[in-house]
Every structure is written in C-alpha cells, then in structure tokens.
C-alpha cells in the first residue's frame, strides 16, 4: 500500500470507530453520530500530528542545545 492509501485507511477506520462509539455509547442517532464524527475525526488526526511534531522538535532541540543546562553550569 502506498502512503496515501495507508492514511486513507486509518482515517476511515478512525471515522467508523468514532461513529460506532457515538452511536452506541452516547445513544445518539445515526445521523447525529455521522455528523459529529465528521468534526471529531479531523480534530483527532490533527492532535496526533501535533503530538508527533512536538516530540520530534523536542528531540531535535535536546540534541542541538548549545548552552549547558543550569545545573551543569554550576559544576
């Protein structure tokens, strides 16, 4: 599978899980669950992307730190 096919499969899977979760746990109707899932799915994907990006930047920042940490300066 190509990268975009994997992303599409994950997105559809997440959407289906959110619809089912809303339908059977919240007791909403199918229409309401489908509409709410249209909002929740992109938000969840964005939050996952943001977490990944933040972690990557934190790792890079930790490697590139030029000044020593305050506790290391006192030694």
UniProtKB/TrEMBL annotation:
Transmembrane stretches, by residue range?
Answer: 7-24, 30-50
Q: Which domain of life is it from?
A: Bacteria
Protein keywords: Membrane, Transmembrane, Transmembrane helix
* Name of the protein in its database record: Archaellum biogenesis protein FlaJ (TadC family)
* Species per Swiss-Prot/TrEMBL record: Streptomyces luteogriseus
């Amino acid at each position: 599978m190509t990268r975009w096919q994997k992303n599409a499969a994950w997105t559809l899977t997440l959407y289906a899980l959110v619809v089912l979760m809303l339908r059977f746990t919240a007791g909403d109707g199918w229409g309401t669950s489908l509409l709410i899932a249209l909002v929740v799915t992109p938000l969840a994907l964005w939050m996952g992307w943001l977490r990944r990006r933040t972690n990557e930047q934190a790792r890079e920042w930790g490697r590139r730190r030029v000044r020593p940490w305050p506790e290391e300066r006192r030694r």
